[in-house]
Amino acid sequence: MPRKGMRTLNWFSPKHSTTDSTSQFSSPSRFGFSPSRPSFSEAVIDRTLDMAEPMIMKWDPDTTTFAKVTSLFYENRREAKDFIKCVHNLQKAMHFHSTENSRSDKLVRAQSLMQIAMKRLQKEFYQILSINRAHLDPESISTVSSRISTRSSISDFDVEDDDDRVIGGESISEVEDFSVVVMSDLRLIAECMISSGYAKECLKIYKVIRKSIVDEGIYRLGVEKLSSSQVHKMDWEVVDLKIKDWLNAVDVAMKTLFNGERILCDHVFAFNDAIRESCFTEISKDGAMILFSFPENVAKNSKKSPEKVFRLLDKYTAIAEHWPEIEAIFSFDSESIIRSQALTSLVKLGESIRTALAEFETALQKESSKTTVAGGGIHPLTIDAMNYIILLADYSNVLSDILAEAPPPAKASLPESFFGIVDSDASPVPAISLRFAWLILLLLCKLDGKAKQYKDVSLAYLFLANNLQYVVVKVRSSNLKYLLGENWISKQEGKIKQFASNNERLGWGHVIESLPQEPNATMTPQQVKEIFKKFNSFFEQAHRKQSVCVVPNSKLRDSLKVSIARKILPLYREFYNTHKHMMAIERHSSHVIKFSPEDIGHYLSDLFFGPIESESSSSVESSPSRTIPSRLR
């Protein structure tokens, strides 16, 4: 009797028949049969059995050693074609005959042959899947997928000649063609077995072998199932290594592992959508759930700190970038749990990222170190905060999505003069730009407070100029340039000039004012002597204070020196050249004229390098690091 689940066919076509309607076989007398002779269906099944039995029995693994140790599809693919045709015709003949006599002995004989054939095909299916793992690995499948034809149904296979790339005694032009052939063979066997009612046996073999490949692939990529307590107890260094493995794994898994498995499953079971869905879901579900549950697990159970935000952002970016692939590969309804898990991880990561950014803002506001930086140089807080903000700016695209649900800082807290552009309803500032402007404003407000710790006001202004210059340089050389815009940068550069001007006025104003505005005017020797003495005193005092100052940025340093020199040197040179001869006849003239114009130029050119130039430069030029100092934790 036909097996339960046998594909229902309403037609039968002998080798030379050109019609396929069963109604044409309802009257045997049309073909010269008398009522006493065998019916047409009996004649058909007799002929089919006579043709099928020798072929099927030849490859019965229980009858000959040859059949037991030899692969039909590897030995001779042409004969493998005939075997598939033979089984297909036998199945049609059985169905056709069963409509007339469901208790026929011929059906018993045919069913026995069908079982032997299915046993053979099970063996072939298992061998192809097992032996050809190298040619069926997801990477190879992904590579050749575009070359696989969507035909390979039994009817198409009947008429297509694959002699140019068969295996037994025939050639295969390329390694990739081997994968194509193997995939086509699997599809032929699967369609034959399933249409003959042996879907359970076929799918069991396929699922066991292919699921082991997916599970092994996930394991080899370094991703393992971890409990919440395991993650919570791990040191951050261990978690960080696992995150690095995961970032590599999700890329390989989506582009190769799951993509290749979906391609293979779609090809092998192209003739049945329900089977394709159940098969791929069972193969991929466990591995995919382990892969996409890891980010949520870490986000919920690892110890929180601002510096870990970058790993959270890496994971968020990885899932977001692969989201189209996740939806395409796991598109079946039965795989909604996988898509849901990936989305849940995105949500949890977003929550953790928002929390980490809020903690960074709080740490920045609460930073309370009282130590001043020698020479008015770059404060460590400026370096650390800007490095952190610059790294955040590299994730501005995903942060735009993550922070969309977080309320931006109140517009009243961000003066338009600070932001540098008009924020109006007609031309609103992007929320992500507003967020970064807010972070830098917090930093600059903190620096204003630290400047007040300097007793020398001119040094306080130099401190502000140095630190704001550092901020602007970092903005210009990073993604912050596009987030904040040229107007913002121009506003800050104007502030730098104002700070530098205030430093010059307070540090060198007395020196400039000690020189007469009309240096060529006629004066008495005593007047000239008093001017020289006053200039000497003020210059020495100013130089002594300013010589300990440091300006790490060469552009700002040169600008300051040039500005000071232009206000002092021309006046002093003219006064010096006009009155030096008058002082030459005076006693102790060397005590009166201490500096030549050249001396003044040399002294000014040596300014702002500070006593610790090399140390300051190395700290200022350090590359951004993902490690946040304790002051911002």
UniProtKB/TrEMBL annotation:
Q: Return the InterPro entries for the record.
A: Cullin_repeat-like_dom_sf, Exo70, Exo70_C
One MF annotation (Gene Ontology) recorded for this entry: phosphatidylinositol-4,5-bisphosphate binding
Of the GO CC terms on this record, one is: exocyst
- Annotated region described as Disordered, given as residue ranges: 1-30, 614-633
Cite a single Pfam family from the UniProt record.
Exo70_C
Q: Name one GO biological process term.
A: exocytosis
Start and end residues of each Exocyst complex subunit Exo70 C-terminal domain: 244-606
Respond yes or no to whether keyword Acyltransferase is given for this record: no
The UniProt entry's sequence similarity note says: Belongs to the EXO70 family.
Q: What does this protein do?
A: Component of the exocyst complex.
What's this protein's name? Exocyst subunit Exo70 family protein
Give the organism the record lists.
Answer: Nicotiana sylvestris
